[in-house]
From TrEMBL:
Positions of the Large ribosomal subunit protein bL25 L25 domain: 4-91
Source organism of this protein record: Buchnera aphidicola subsp. Diuraphis noxia
GO cellular component, one term: cytosolic large ribosomal subunit
Name of encoding gene: rplY
GO biological process: translation
Keywords of this entry: Ribonucleoprotein, Ribosomal protein, RNA-binding, rRNA-binding
Keyword Ribonucleoprotein: yes
Subunit architecture: Part of the 50S ribosomal subunit; part of the 5S rRNA/L5/L18/L25 subcomplex. Contacts the 5S rRNA. Binds to the 5S rRNA independently of L5 and L18.
Protein name as it appears in the record: Large ribosomal subunit protein bL25
Length: 94
C-alpha cells in the first residue's frame, strides 16, 4: 500500500495556492467523511513520483495527516496544461 504524508491547511484561495506551489507544495482535499472536508497541503515531488505507479489509481492509498491514518482513493487530479506539474488533488475516504 502506498503511503502519502500530508499536512492540514487553514488558508484557502487562489493566492494561497500559488504561494504553496512556489515552495514545491500543492493543495488537496479529503472528503467522504461524515464530518466536513479536510484541506490538505502535499509535497509535489513525492506525489508526482507516486502517481507514476499503476497502483496509485487502482488501489487504496494510506494518507497520514498528523498521525491519523485514512484509507483513501484518488477521486480527481488537476494537472497543468503543458508543464509536468500537479495543481490539485481530491481524495475520497473509503
Amino acid at each position: 500500500m502506498l503511503v502519502i504524508n500530508a499536512e492540514k491547511r487553514l488558508n484557502t484561495g487562489k493566492s494561497f495556492s500559488r504561494k504553496l506551489r512556489l515552495y514545491n507544495k500543492f493543495p488537496g482535499v479529503l472528503y467522504g467523511l461524515k464530518k466536513s472536508v479536510i484541506l490538505l497541503t502535499l509535497d509535489h515531488n513525492t506525489v508526482f513520483n507516486l502517481q507514476k505507479k499503476t497502483n496509485f489509481y487502482k488501489k487504496n492509498l494510506l494518507l497520514l495527516i498528523q498521525d491519523k491514518k485514512y484509507q483513501v482513493k484518488v477521486q480527481a487530479i488537476q494537472r497543468h496544461s503543458f508543464k509536468l506539474k500537479l495543481l490539485h488533488i481530491d481524495f475520497l475516504c473509503v
